[in-house]
UniProtKB/TrEMBL annotation:
It comes from Mucilaginibacter lappiensis. This is Glycosyl hydrolases family 18.
């Protein structure tokens, strides 16, 4: 189906493409900073680093979030991203592709290892984040804090959210962390991620409200919205809620003109989580079509989306890369 058929009211695909940028991002595994795959124990090689960097360049990935966490229960980061090996990998990636923006990916799950309500934990986390940025020689950080909702028997095994502990102040605490980090390092690039604000999405992570996001976007430079694991089973509902997400991004853009991304998943959930992600809807071709349609629905037309964020590099197949190239990059 052509762009003309999908996007009624747009004259051609070039007109649609004016509504979004190609400053795309990707969440990447700890292999690159750890030096080995923690599951298979396979060692990272120079050839693997070169191949990874070339792959990012081939698919117009500008931002790579290299996993460097999670924060430990005392707020400190693990040792592996501070090693000489990690520093050398970052140097090699930058030498091979100077345009690549490398952001260590840190964070974790509230009430598991993350304790944003604890001032000592926050002090340690901010201190280590500063040290990591300086040690790796990178321009900033990608923050991924998550609050897992209670009530799902499978997810309840991962974190103790008894009586929804610290839930009421979670959004405020995230904002306070980002505010303190910004004060501590005024010039760094701060990226973060939240689940979609759309009203009919039913993710297993807690949503951040628009008033909370209005404050958050004062302190950060980039925000990605996860538009997968929505729990939506009907494509019309999926499309409508993406239109509503686009309108929320337009509102936030009018308040704080930072870089906004919408994230697409390139993975298959564990069987226990299949109810949150229906692949007949949340596949790459349909997700990208729906995202573009949502952008077209924004009135007046405005380029509010800086690009797509892909989760994740270790699960993206060759077929999914080709789909991304065809439907988002519009390569023939």
């Amino acid at each position: 189906m052509s762009s003309i058929q999908i996007f009624q009211g747009c004259k051609n695909s070039n007109e649609v493409s004016l509504l979004y940028g190609q400053n795309n991002a990707m969440w990447c595994q700890s292999l690159y900073l750890r030096g080995y795959n923690p599951t298979t124990k396979e060692r990272l090689t120079s050839k693997m680093v070169d191949s990874f960097g070339q792959q990012m360049k081939n698919h117009h990935i500008k931002y790579v979030y290299l996993f460097a966490g999670p924060f430990l229960s005392n707020g400190h980061l693990p040792e592996y991203p501070f090693t000489d090996s990690a520093v050398n990998v970052v140097k090699k990636l930058k030498q091979n592709n100077p345009d690549l923006i490398i952001l260590p990916w840190v964070g974790g799950i509230q009430n598991k290892t993350v304790q944003l309500q604890d001032s000592l934990w926050v002090n340690n986390a901010i201190s280590d984040t500063k040290l990591l940025i300086k040690r790796l020689g990178v321009p900033g950080i990608h923050l991924d804090f998550e609050y897992i909702l209670s009530g799902d028997p499978y997810l309840d095994h991962f974190v103790d959210n008894h009586n929804n502990a610290n839930k009421e102040d979670y959004g405020k605490n995230v904002n306070d962390f980002c505010r303190r980090l910004r004060i501590s390092m005024p010039k760094i690039f701060i990226s973060s991620v939240v689940v979609a604000t759309s009203p009919e999405t039913k993710p297993w992570k807690m949503k951040t409200t628009l008033p909370e996001l209005k404050i958050l976007t004062k302190y950060i430079d980039q925000l990605a919205f996860l538009y997968f694991d929505t729990g939506i089973t009907d494509n019309k509902v999926f499309k409508h809620n993406c239109e509503l997400l686009s309108k929320d991004i337009l509102f936030l853009y009018s308040q704080n003109k930072i870089k906004y991304l919408i994230a697409v998943g390139t993975f298959i959930n564990e069987p226990q989580l299949h109810g949150y992600r229906h692949m007949d809807i949340e596949n790459i071709p349909n997700s990208i079509s729906v995202i573009k349609s949502g952008l077209v629905s924004v009135s007046p037309p405005k380029r509010i989306l800086d690009g797509i964020a892909l989760y994740c590099d270790w699960r993206t197949t060759d077929t999914e890369w080709r789909e991304f190239d065809r439907y988002w990059l519009e390569k023939n």
